[in-house]
Design brief:
This protein is of the alpha/beta class. 40% of the residues lie in helices and 15% in strands. The protein has two domains: 99 residues, Alpha-Beta Complex (Aspartate Aminotransferase, domain 1), CATH 3.90.1150; 240 residues, Type I PLP-dependent aspartate aminotransferase-like (Major domain) (Aspartate Aminotransferase, domain 2, 3-Layer(aba) Sandwich). The strands form two sheets. It has a seven-stranded mixed β-sheet with strand order 1-7-6-5-4-2-3, sandwiched between helices. A three-stranded antiparallel β-sheet has the order 8-9-10, with helices on one face.
Length: 352
């Protein structure tokens, strides 16, 4: 008797379930030939820093890390004292999904969750929070604002929205961190430059995600305020995030940034989410929730449809929000047919 494994094309739980782009795998193989200096002193890492400088239209520093959580926690640690606070959205990854790493790495800074639609911080709430008990030794000191681009619900902060949050942050003398686990998706969706969507809006440190969009194990911190680099370097080593063979992480990032692969991959993931959104809109009884600008789609499905999809081998998150709310995430590896099959299954189960 043979058992059947559900097709991997039915996995919509996260973009980190996708494989890696062939160009990236080949770059790792090439980097394996011969010796190289360790701990980031190799030529490939230097090349990635130069490439990022071109992409962001200014000189930047770079810390190569192996997870997005490390990028976020180390960045926040460099931007706030232990008695500071991190103002973030209540649905943000830093607030919900990092096992307290930001609190741990900052040495105890407090995360202050704020509201706002589509997981975007509400400007009025931010305006109040940046001044709340500032200078009062009995409270934590507002120190850094962390925004996510694209947001955890698949929306993107427009240039105006980012500009508003950046201005409130800067005018109050706070630092600005961006969780860019899906930064490529935002750049692809908005058609604005990486510079406009980061340091020109006041971002000091960017967690530059790549693992969800084509690399195997490599993310980065892009450092715009380069005075922070020495401290970040010590923090990264202390956190076990300075890989001896950094060249292999760097090779992934190098291929990722070459010839626009990062933006092509992100555009593909976004297009697949758009295809899914359009398809779901055409099916009665599916309630779409929030904006889908990037590669995450939230909707409401009747419980029996969710269960029938799961029984057929579809994988997606469905039990983390209010009952009936499900999340589908697409990636650079999603094919048109994968979306069409999913839409067909949703329609079939709704009809049945
Ligand atoms: C918004 C956001 N930030 C950061 C991360 C990084 O997570 P990890 O530490 O798993 O790479 C994720 C991954 O799901 C994410 O969705």
């Amino acid at each position: 008797m043979t058992t059947t494994t559900p097709p991997l094309t039915r996995i919509f739980s996260s973009d980190n379930t996708a494989g890696a782009s062939p160009e990236i795998v080949e770059a790792v193989a090439r980097a394996a030939a011969g010796p190289a200096l360790p701990y980031g002193a190799d030529d490939i890492t230097a090349g990635v820093r130069r490439r990022l400088g071109e992409i962001f239209e200014r000189e930047v520093d770079l810390l190569v890390v192996s997870t997005g959580s490390a990028a976020n926690a180390l960045s926040l640690a460099a931007l706030t004292p232990p008695w500071g606070s991190v103002l973030c959205h209540r649905d943000s990854h830093v607030n919900n999904d990092e096992c307290g790493a930001p609190e741990f790495y900052t040495g105890g800074a407090k995360l202050v969750p704020l509201g706002g639609r589509d997981a975007k911080i509400d400007p009025a709430e931010l305006r109040a929070a940046v001044r709340h008990k500032a200078g009062d030794v009995h409270s934590v000191e507002p120190s850094v604002v962390s925004v996510t681009q694209a947001t955890e619900t698949g929306a993107v902060l427009t240039l105006d929205e980012l500009g508003t949050l950046g201005a409130i942050t800067g005018e109050a003398g706070l630092r600005l961190h961006m969780d860019g686990a899906r930064f490529a998706g935002a750049v692809a969706a908005l058609g604005r430059t990486p510079a406009e969507l980061s340091w020109r809006a006041g971002v000091d440190l960017l967690s530059f995600g790549a693992t969800k969009n084509g690399t195997m194990t490599a993310d980065a911190i892009v450092v715009f305020d380069r005075s922070l680099t020495p401290e970040l370097a010590f923090r990264a080593k202390r956190a076990g995030q300075l890989a001896a063979k950094t060249r292999f992480h760097a090779a992934q990032l190098d291929a990722y940034l070459t010839d626009g692969l990062w933006l092509r991959n992100a555009a593909r993931a976004n297009a697949m989410a758009a295809r899914l959104t359009e398809g779901l809109k055409a099916i009665p009884d599916v309630g779409l929730l929030g904006a889908t600008d990037a590669n995450i789609v939230f909707c409401r499905l009747p419980e029996q449809v969710t269960q029938a999809l799961l029984a057929e081998g579809y994988a997606f998150y469905h039990d983390r929000w209010e009952p009936g709310v499900v999340r589908f995430v697409t990636s650079f590896a999603t094919r048109d047919a994968d979306i069409d099959d999913l839409l067909g299954a949703v329609a079939r189960h709704l009809a049945g």
